[in-house]
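yo

u said u wanted the structure for the complex thing, so here. seqs first:
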Amino acid sequence: MKPTSQGLGSGFLIHDNWILTNAHVVSDSRMLLVNKISSPKPFLADVLAIAHDSDLALLKVRDPKFYQGLTPLELGGIPELRSRVRAYGYPVGGKELSRTEGVVSRIEFGTYVHPGIDSHLLIQTDSAINPGNSGGPVTQSGQAIGVAFQSNLRLNDVGYFIPVPLINRFLTDIKDGRYDGVPEIGIETSSLINQHYRKYLGLPEDTGGILVERVVPHSSADGVLLIGDVLTKIEDLQIDAAGMVRYSEQQVTFFIEAENRQIGDPLQLQVWRKGKFINLTLTLKTPPFGSEMRNSYDELPEYVIFGGLVFIALNRNYIHSPGNITPPLAYEHWYREIERPRTRQEQVVIVTRVLPSPVNSGYTNLHNFVVSSLNGKPVRSLAHLEKILKNMPLETTNVVFESEWHKIPLVLNFKESLDQHNSVLKRYGIIDGSRIYADKNKDSQ
Amino acid sequence: MKHNNFLYTLLKWPITATVFLFTSVLQADPPEIKPWFQQAVLLKSYQQSFDWRTPWEKREIRTQSGMALVVRLPVSVRISESENGNNNNLYLLTTAEIVSDATLIEVTRKDIRSPFQAKLVLMDYAANLALLQINNSKFWRNLRPVKWTPVKSSTDHEAKDIYSLKIKSQDEWTMESGTIDRMTVGHRGVSNAWFPLLRLNGISKSGQGYPLLQDNETAGMILDVGTGETKAMPAAMLLEFLKHAGSNPYQSLAHRGFIWSKLPQSSTYNHLQIPLEKPGIWISRVLPYGTGSDVLMQGDYLTKLGKWTLSHDGKVEHPDWGISLFDLLFLAHLKVGDSVKLEVIREGKPVVLQTKVSAYKENSRSVPLKIVGTAPRYVIEGGFLFQELTLNYLRIWGANWQTRAPMRLRLFLEQNKAVSIYENNKTDKSSNGSKISSEHPPRIVLVSQVIPDPVNIGYQKLSNAVVLKVNGKQIRRLEDVSTAFLNPINNFHRIDFLPGSERLSVILSVAELADANQRIKNNFRIPKLQSF
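structre next:
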């Protein structure tokens, strides 16, 4: 177990005795304490729901007395540009509530640092937002218009807050007791600002539109949109040649129409295909490989140990650890599915390290071996690997792991691996030979 | 006081003894300096490499100094069109590094103050060797070729002693002594060649092209004095270079034709049907050049190279150097063109293969390593600057290019196109197949940048995008781009890029392209829109 650490953040009361805060304030927490303004008394709280993709979380305090004398904040809407806002919170901890003021300086799509890859609508303000402000409300006219959540180290006096539409989406999403996530259309597009490209496509004058250049396999758009389609309209909004739509007096990317909806919702599209306009409807889904591609929290990593080899599934946390951006891992994690669609397995299984023991002598320096197959069977996931190993006939001589990246197969004697399994675990103080979460892995069944 | 005197006496004696020992064993008389006034010359080169970011321009001029050795090519070797100002087949031998991309090479004799201009006649960049000529008989007067001697390799300490020149000024030449640390197999990051090299201790003031002396004769040439480690090419390899100097096309030095691995443990032997007691190495990849490349297959287990039995870690009992990597056999025992038998276990059965020792070859990679002496190749169409991916290109990201250059481009270099972008979702055949026959593997062609012009508005953010097709034609080298632009489709040019790029396709109008090209050429002062 690694040493524990403390983090401080802010939060605010909304309806139903719920405290709204950021996911990054409560991620990986083992104990949550909440203090009221100017009160030294901490109250134990629990996470009711957490949305890592949009950096939001809902808490509830166990002791009802906590709520005495508190009034929930109402949620407002999207503020106007240059309108004044106030940010409340506890920057760098502190005992008293801090209040700063500023104006709304930009409303745009941007990366949410907590998940690492997700981009959503965010609002920029010059009101000071510092560490500890996270989770605090940003208000206007007495209503909460967002949750303060991140800053930009390259810019001075700039902070960002999560706007109300994304908060409302989160609150709607969890109504069924489960968080499903922010949907994505699943396409990559390019602008059609260049007049020659527009002529090439035969697009009518004054038609905007953005070019579909990649349809992500298994995404919402898979089977609906085609490469080469020009997306001209989403719901009732015209898309311009740079892919922007008019949204609450702002020009923002057309993806906004998907992110405020729920998984399973329909989305109406108009495209220019083969010289004519056609209308299409897609059903919104979460992005494929989301859990591998974004930062993961709250769960201990999955693993399988066999013959002293430690197998894990490649994910963002792992590849960003020092020394792990190697060509095979970088290709498998970032480029394979883009360049060779539908070739990525459910999980990329790798041997992360070897626990030295007689059965694996000669392999003890092995690191980041990407497993393509096991005794000739393609390995789809960590759970699938474990299943193949469990079902392997006892008369098997060798266990052969092959990799597209290593010419020499990794070969272990099957019987010796089984015989030494418990002693390996004991020698290295490991309680379980594997940790697989059943809800993530259908293959384990 | 008495006490102190006693200590002093005790300490003094062993020091005296130590000095005596060094004098008698290590400090043998240094070679005479005078003969070297006729065998070695000073060299200064002015180098100007190309700017691979704007490939029609050159970078700052820099200078390097070193030495060159007077060498005589074998009688049979004639370098065509060579007018060397002497009738004795004399040339100057130095390192490639010091003369690559040189705009001027000046050579100065010890006894003549004014420098002579030298001309590069042959360069083997992988081996870091170059041959120069000087078309002036005055320069060659009284110069004598160096006397070669094989590096003495006995385990006797005395044989490890070596000398090199130390030049303080044109007038002040002295000798410095050192020792041979070991004979090993060396590699430079700028090429993919592994040749036998000497590692030296104690030689710190010498520089590139300086002679390595053993018993008054030349046992090698110093290639570089790096960070705490001096490397030299042994005489045997230098002589091989001189022997090959007249070959047309030039043939480099002997080299293995495969990449090998040590098998990790008994279960691997069992799985690959190789008897555990049989020592040898596993062929993990067959190279497109070098010894055995024509007969070996990936997965072969090589047990014997000629009469030498290979150990489990690729070593042989070398007649001169003891237990060493088999590559040291290319020093004297396996020469280019020699017939050699390779004994392998293939699919569980012993097989004897007959081949000839063959040489290293540059230009066999999809991403060429450092290119010197030739201008970068490029094509500009509609402001799109097309270039082939090379190590030179990646180095425009500076000293930390290995972390700063775009990841996808670095992957192409590191894996040498391990994952194909051309084979329709299959893995690269060259990485799995048994043999590579292609002399020129496909290259990675990029649009490195878009030079701004009204014709490319909307595309100008594009950079470092790997080109897959132009007008539907697959692009495997830069020439394909020029050819493809001759065949537009319905009055438009279409360029398709590898997914993951800033955008995946662009369209240019044929009608506007010629005017745009002229505009770009004038506006950005580009001498030519195509380098070849």
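Residues 1-27, 417-438 of chain B have pLDDT under 50 and may be disordered. Chain B touches chain A at residues 261, 263-268, 270-271, 282, 284-285, 298-299, 407-408, 410-411, 414-415, 418-419, 421, 425, 427, 455-459, 492, 494, 498-500, 503-509, 512 (CB under 8 Å).
cya
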